[in-house]
Design a protein that fits this description.
Two copies of one chain form a homodimer. Chain A contains eight helices and 28 strands. By secondary structure, chain A is of the alpha/beta class. Chain A folds into four domains: 163 residues, MoaB/Mog-like domain (Molybdenum Cofactor Biosythetic Enzyme, Chain A), CATH 3.40.980.10; 59 residues, Molybdopterin biosynthesis moea protein, domain 2, CATH 3.90.105.10; 85 residues, Molybdopterin biosynthesis moea protein, domain 3 (Molybdopterin biosynthesis moeA protein, domain 3, Beta Complex); 72 residues, Beta-clip (Beta Barrel). The longest helix of chain A is centred in the C-terminal third of the chain and has 20 residues.
Amino acid sequence: MKFLKTISVEEFKNILNSISKIVTDEELVSLEDSFNRIISRDLPSNINVPHFRKSRMDGYAVIAEDTFGAEEDNLIELELIETIQAGDIPQKELNKGQCSYVATGAAIPENSNGIVMVEFSDKQENNVLISNAITPGTHVIEIGHDVKKGDVIVKKNTLIDLATIGILASCGIKEVSVYKKPIVSLISTGNELVSQDIKELDIGKIYDINSIVLKKAIENTGVQVNFLGVVKDEYEDLKNSMDNVLENSDIIILSGGTSKGEGDLGPRVLEDYNDIEILIHGVKIKPGKPMIFAKLKKKLLFILPGYPTSALSCFYVFIDNFLRKMSGYPLRERFSKEIEVGERIYSTVGRHEFKAVKIQEVDGKKRIFPIKTGSEAISTMFYADGYIEIDELESIIERGDNRRVYFF
Amino acid sequence: MKFLKTISVEEFKNILNSISKIVTDEELVSLEDSFNRIISRDLPSNINVPHFRKSRMDGYAVIAEDTFGAEEDNLIELELIETIQAGDIPQKELNKGQCSYVATGAAIPENSNGIVMVEFSDKQENNVLISNAITPGTHVIEIGHDVKKGDVIVKKNTLIDLATIGILASCGIKEVSVYKKPIVSLISTGNELVSQDIKELDIGKIYDINSIVLKKAIENTGVQVNFLGVVKDEYEDLKNSMDNVLENSDIIILSGGTSKGEGDLGPRVLEDYNDIEILIHGVKIKPGKPMIFAKLKKKLLFILPGYPTSALSCFYVFIDNFLRKMSGYPLRERFSKEIEVGERIYSTVGRHEFKAVKIQEVDGKKRIFPIKTGSEAISTMFYADGYIEIDELESIIERGDNRRVYFF
């Protein structure tokens, strides 16, 4: 396996951006389950919406010409022949001098070409006095006003949001063809990792965090997670798991096993695949330097650092929106703000640092303070409000400087 | 029933803001299911994290004093007595002049008080040459560095995000006490509404949209939806449904049945409850004027307009974040931007209008255009990119004016 040189953040982003969206097969889902999915074919409507002429208002369906000349001091009397509520089928057609009461949304009788609003009427026994002249078409919703039969209502590759579900529902559509969610397999590696089912921890063992946290983070990007649990740091175990998931995944995310120590297995297992193309092996960032990104049998593979804080931070900064791009999910917009630094912050020269910070108010002003623990502690992430970026060449950020904080 | 006068948007917002968070009972959920829930009691850790002394780096665990004086041209030789991988239990304690290899995260042997990084070592057969002097404590993660046994890790009323799940997982916690989700019952009313299961629509009937769209929108606020489906516009039907859901809901949302026409049932049913307190009946907005907000048997009740575009628009503008406040869910931050108006826009004087608009590029510049259909058409919402707010007293917005667009 060819190990590439450590690359910059910019190069890393460029490589990720060069990967095109994964094209998955189609599947049919219920309209309700289609929320936030990508429609896989143009969808025409089989009906007009509405498919009958209806009233936009509560009022009286009339022949507009009958109302000409009506004013407050010149009431025109019409015979009331029917009351039509929403959902009713009109039973009578209008003749000259007649009207029918129509509720909002109700079908209007044949021959009617306008609605006089209730506000401009005075109902007598069997008659209605009209005080407002209307032009033909007033408050009538014509057939196909909303959607025309045969028109493509939703185009292929559209993200289905609530308004899209609304318009599909209005056309009576129950099921939608969408692209399948890309499958992301998640493997957590490490002999030290123990499930929360175990009550007493031996020396050397720690509870597994990445399985549950990364799984949740990945799920939130609109992909389907295939979770393999913790795999032992043994060549055969990891190789077998890899072989398995290569069959049925689009993307594989492995946490742990990326640094250069004797116990690190990820790169050794990758070495034994012929058709592997390592795109990235090492990024000049802190935390997350040993990250690996590769193409293997047409699948994409990430190896994230094992420390949960490093893994989650790399995930948020680089992989979250990458997976959303792959699934077609709405991208996460990261809220950020310039804030004054409240205490000197140190950084490692030669690495672009994503430094966890908290925001505290001092002397009535919000200021940035560094989190003192590092990526070895999950509490770092827990106590941080966000992060600041520190350039490769900066070693110190002075108190009083302004920095942009990216909030989690 | 006392009908109140139509109120302004500001008054409506103030009334909603005056409602305090619903306090629900507790329930125990798995750590994984606790995402975005509110923890209902202080949670202390039963263990130290880590519960053993471990190495932050790949390197050699040493007695720091043994390395004093080590430099590149003054290598100090130590006897290598053991290799400890992450997860291993150290078998040997160090004596003066000895060291053990330790992987990142591995437990370190007794008596060791510092780690020399691999980079500053040269491994021989059974010995290691050290080129770097370290002070006691270097690269050792002490017991309780991350979390101290007995310390409250997560305080009551905290929203559980991914980092919180991470820290709870690291303490071996499998289940968490959280507040139950408030139960929101949703009723769609209207004799004209028909399920998508029906293939052929009669005259007067339309497919029900609110059931599926509002249900989804409500679900997204972190509450539990109790969905009753479409209820007929008959007094007994609606009264029975209301009586039912009052028992087992915290909030009731009814769509349809709010305007003043003969067919409107919501207010008539409300009248017959003694213990009802109508807080709002009518807001000077378009769309959504007839909205009702009431307290009934200590439950909260909204009646939204029946037109799906009105209902969804009222929901987004007023109720979305209100429900999130009730459930403790993260509020929705609405993205907005000032853009130039590309075409004259008309509005009704006397109502604060939330006008659906689309953004189109004309002459290389993005501009605001009004959607020509109104709230009677679900396509209005579908084609809109967002909305602009138009003050009660404005009747015309001229082309060339700048307006803030709130994106959906």
